[in-house]
């Protein structure tokens, strides 16, 4: 599963939802029921997605829904809606601060938590190792609010990024970089993507069609990465046939984490044909 | 709040619900949406309680609803129903295994978790210290199932009881003893109550009107306990006026835990006064 | 994988090893390199098993090797031997007190830890949730030694049993009851098996051929258990086809833990034809 | 309680103590018994403050005493003195590394721990969630010493600041920025205050009268913040009347943390009214 | 250091203190400043022990002082007194629930915590692994009070005993059994000692001269134990000379824990000549 | 023990090993069996060091061996070799992520773990407080690989450095800075050493003879440091004679951590004296 770009779409905007499904090429689409939907429209949005999402052709895209914070009553009606929508593959949970495995058990859907509070940072390991979690992202505006600080002061913060990437990789899940709000500035966005990639993020949450292409481009693996991946996959699958879960390839330990990294690279190649 | 008896009533049984509210005298009533309600009747039960509960006069009884396990989809529709029912004071959550503070935040209702799985026993401290938890009980049949053992082998188990009481008291919440299934055997029930009281439980979950009176009787404080309580309350409130949170009464540390124990005793006297 | 009986065989006793493989019917055979092999014969035993084990027909039995305590140098030569022996499926690690996942990574073999020290009891959760662990047992003689107490005082101890079973079941692995040393007393042994089964243990470690048959008998599922298992498996597999990881069967939550319990029951039926 | 400025005053300097109480306007005064008082004068300082502090008019200022490290014998005589001094509201505990709730229980005074050692950083969550803790600050000189590094290398360190602010906010207590030693450089001090505010600190520890005014100014809320606070308080108090602990205000979760932030803002307005 | 008997002596009773030092033969004497000393006599008791204890000849006995609970103000004056009394070797801390290493650092005296509350049971590992702890005991009356239960119900409780012994042994410190209150019943006391020994306790807290002799007798090692100890010490010291911290003696791991057990046995032999 | 420079030497390079022992002056020599030795030469290297290391005169240098990752089978044969080589004082364990005390118990050798994976960063406290650990270092290339990021992005990362130094100092062990790969650039290397020293590292891992001298120079204590050390040692040893483990020297707490820092300084003076 590639997650180079995850496009947020307001859950009450039918036009954009159709566009995301039918015209755009993000790896994931995240239908938002939280901040992008005003309180008065939450119920309308739930009805809309319940009917609309199963009708559209998602064409290999990972379909996700961002529900409201479990500490609000909205969350419960959201889950009661989402688990009935067949094509939804993943539930994005904001302000994650604790073990979310129960949502996975109840819905059978993968979980992508968002770290965006002080306690979420302190508890990130509990969050990412929840059963069913396959990716994690974070939010800087909400984080700054939660500590009473300013967005500008926390944007360059290395502590949060280092912990999000480390916790994700320690548990074999995908770290996804946060939203870049300035949709006019594509050059700034590209640089943000490149920095994120160098830190180990596998993709970026995006909010506008124009950001999709840039993210897909930056986070696609290079030829060198592809060759590395081929060797890893070959060696590891041979090892597994020999009953081994970890091998030494040219003096480097190669285990399931590397295998998953490599498989994602090759899946990309296959998909983009 | 006294919790000498907590009467379970099936959530789809209007007659029993009315009886529990209007004719019986348990300290708490727990409307059940979980095991006592077949899958096909869950939605009927939700509708029934949404309409019926606000109409009845609960007359000082603590009204609780037991929802389904958070690892089933039923839970979400349950919470979406319960948080709208004004007189509900407390949500009983079965198979509790993790921090449940989010339910308290979302609903504003107190939480009473049930320890009834292997992991619940291992994680009991996380469960009872969740924000909003005010009582805890446990279930032996479900526990035995969760470990693949038999009810008979686990009924006398001291480990579970010791941990339920200790975890509850360590965090200043009420330990409530489990259901006694043999409704014909009131003498056995009374002895079960007395053993529970000697271990520190403050009351018992019950399933039949005849058990209510016995539980209320056994778990009511004796005169000696009442005198002790009067001294504690007096001394502690004086201490608080002097800006102290813990005092030494006749060489014994007296703090907020003791104060709460004592206040419950006196509240009983006042109510039954 | 059934584990009703796990027969210990001294690693330096070729005759018994052959007998265990070819004549006896334990579900698992545990070749011992630890307490049953004197220090002077450790190296001889390693050589013997390296050559002998691959030649024998294990006929569906789970072949395990108990290595020495990781806190002795013997452990390293043991592992260096065992990971090269193809038919070995599982490594039994005595005096387990910490995360043993590294042994699984290095060898590709499943791990069965033994809880038999004071610290092992306190750290049991770390031990059983190690990657690659599929069963856990315990030892009472070593435990008593580790706390400076007597075997007799600890044999009936419910704390250890409750924690071994609970930790195992909380993480979906098999709890196996400990060795019964009095090989002459088969009636006592049978009662010990029955008590163990009622607590949720799935089988017993045994030390003599005569104990194998009794254990296999007691720990085999009854007809009622078989019917229960059929329903669980059917319902759960249907649920999984519908994309759900947990279902409500007659008002009871059924999830992967129950499915694994049920599958083991049916596997038994299939094997025993 | 505003804590924009917390003025340290040596505990053996009567003139400065009087000045701090009667002439200066810090939000808190911290009488120091630790580093500012030489060993030979500890006892003199204890006697002085025992007599002097109750005589002065503190006029709404939060009166705190910094005691010595609990790992020195001085600490015990300090506490034995301080708990008898009525107007003392808060005890500042240096080199905090573990749960300090026992000091709160013993004295009935709030606790402000200082994070200033390597272990304190690793254990910060245990420290800030101690019962009775209402604010937390940190020290960079002592931290650098504790790791064998230099002050200059650790002054810009983002890890320490991020964890102090996050731990404080995760548990709803006040993060206070550290001392700025260069008392001549008021412009540098102002910039330090502004950076601290942007990171979420609510105030600063200060050591000289001239720093008080600057800190009070920078950490006072702006008009925009005041309006935000009015809306939060109004909405949250209405929610509480409706029995809810968390609400959605314009699509944002508002809970007790925000309410406390907002209340502090309004308290400021009222006081300076 | 043998700790077969630890005799409590009220801290305000000069006659008994002298008797304990000069006439009786307990391995440890614990001067009590807590429950045995009324509030009004605490200060008198402190003065008495400050003067008296250094004058007496303790003759190889371990001199301990039980201070008041750290959650009362008495504790601080107690420590301020005790750290100045040279012959005091150990501080007994009641109602222990958290890391007590700071008391060791401040006083240089060994620590013996008492587990006697619900939270103390849950946190026992934090308590016993505190720096400076060398023994641990527990109290059943206070424990029963802390959970609101009765003494009679908790006296036979195996959970508490198992955890006290296990936690102590896991960290290489001495588990000491609790007080037996019925001073008239020496036969019952002897049986209590024997049960305690079989569980691994090394001695007993006692309250009357008549109990001292019985405890010393029961907890003295037998000849067989002495022989075992001689072999362990010899083998381990040889191992240490060879640079090894753990050895295999007749197929059993022998490490520092066993060495300390063995040394205590031999020290007894040496002392008792 | 000084650890200003720790020189890596490939375990299969006899010439370099001889040179390191006989001609060069690093404080430690680390014979590498991991990355510097190709898979095909592992066994050759083990044989070489088994024979060669005992023959050479290490002349006060700390002799270490870096074994392979415990999650590879190489590790077991490595340990089986190393524990038999007398002059080896320390085992360096790469990709450390869990409690490594068992290796110390088995071998009697000190442990120096390397933090170089995402999980290693999250678990650093478990790693450094393992029994037998006396120093810790880290690797940035492996860390970047483990998170899927680039070396360049992680080289300046402050989070990793802050945690390595803090965890080391919190447990009283030596933090050693990582390898600087550009062996031609001695000026850059010197600056790297100076930054490391200012952060509290006591030395540096090096890979070439030319780096040894620079590291020894930068990490040697200055005269001022020497004077400070003399006072600490004198005061602390006097305190210990008085039965105290922590003292107040000029108002600063001085305990075992400072004593060890100071002793290292003086040991240097003595050696180079
Ligand atoms: C920011 C935003 C409001 C701007 O919308 P806009 O003003 O319509 O933007 P543009 O005019 O540039 O849009 C160009 C086209 O892309 C479409 N589009 C814009 N954002 C889109 C999105 N996130 N998904 C799908 N389609 C989108 C528009 O509908 C428009 O299509 P049309 O011309 O066919 O109508 C919009 O991008 C948006 O809602 N983003 C997602 C916000 C969100 O979900 N936030 C929650 C997480 S932070
Ligand atoms: C066990 C049970 C089915 C027996 O019911 P029953 O056969 O009707 O019992 P009885 O005939 O003795 O009941 C006598 C009266 O008490 C009423 N009653 C019985 N249990 C009651 C209950 N839990 N709450 C309220 N009223 C109850 C009956 O309705 C009946 O009243 P009625 O004569 O006015 O009709 C019933 O007690 C019950 O449902 N208990 C609760 C079960 C539950 O909630 N379990 C979940 C947690 S384990
Ligand atoms: C206890 C023990 C020594 C008794 O052995 P014994 O005196 O030979 O017992 P018996 O004479 O009753 O044995 C009968 C037959 O069973 C065989 N046998 C006994 N225990 C066996 C075992 N554990 N596995 C395989 N075969 C076994 C014997 O070899 C003998 O076979 P034979 O007649 O063909 O020679 C033996 O059972 C044993 O070694 N058990 C395992 C001990 C162990 O591994 N302990 C470590 C974990 S606690
Ligand atoms: C640094 C310090 C010694 C400088 O003192 P100084 O040389 O007297 O400073 P100034 O001459 O500028 O002081 C001007 C006036 O402010 C007063 N003053 C200075 N610092 C003061 C303080 N922290 N609190 C109250 N009054 C103070 C002085 O007494 C003087 O008043 P006066 O003219 O009426 O005598 C002093 O500010 C101080 O002691 N600060 C607190 C140090 C401390 O507590 N450290 C521990 C935590 S890091
Ligand atoms: C229970 C207790 C009050 C009984 O005291 P008592 O009535 O004097 O007992 P006896 O008359 O049997 O005492 C016989 C002698 O032993 C002495 N004695 C009794 N308990 C003693 C003790 N704990 N330490 C030293 N001497 C003691 C008495 O002083 C008396 O000596 P004397 O004849 O020279 O005066 C007493 O044993 C006691 O105080 N025990 C300790 C209680 C304590 O410390 N509790 C706190 C922890 S639970
Ligand atoms: C990088 C490296 C291959 C360069 O080696 P090189 O090309 O031989 O370097 P130079 O020619 O500059 O060496 C000069 C002398 O120092 C010796 N030398 C170089 N690195 C040495 C080392 N790490 N230890 C001991 N001697 C070393 C060389 O053998 C040579 O000696 P000689 O002239 O007597 O033959 C070598 O330094 C090396 O192997 N370093 C250690 C790598 C390692 O262990 N990595 C694992 C941890 S990251
Ligand atoms: Mg957000
Ligand atoms: Mg149940
Ligand atoms: Mg054993
Ligand atoms: Mg300081
Ligand atoms: Mg007590
Ligand atoms: Mg490396």
From TrEMBL, chains A, B, C, D, E, F:
Superkingdom assignment: Archaea
Keyword Lyase carried by entry: yes
One family from Pfam that matches here is HpcH_HpaI
Q: Which GO terms describe its molecular function?
A: lyase activity
Q: Name the coenzymes or cofactors required.
A: Mg(2+)
- Report keywords, A-Z: Lyase, Magnesium, Metal-binding
Q: Residue limits of the HpcH/HpaI aldolase/citrate lyase domain?
A: 4-97, 114-209
InterPro entries per the UniProt record, alphabetical = Aldolase/citrate-lyase_domain, Citrate_lyase_beta/mcl1/mcl2, Pyrv/PenolPyrv_kinase-like_dom, Pyrv_kinase-like_dom_sf
Instruction: Report what the protein is called.
Output: CoA ester lyase
Organism (species): Vulcanisaeta souniana JCM 11219
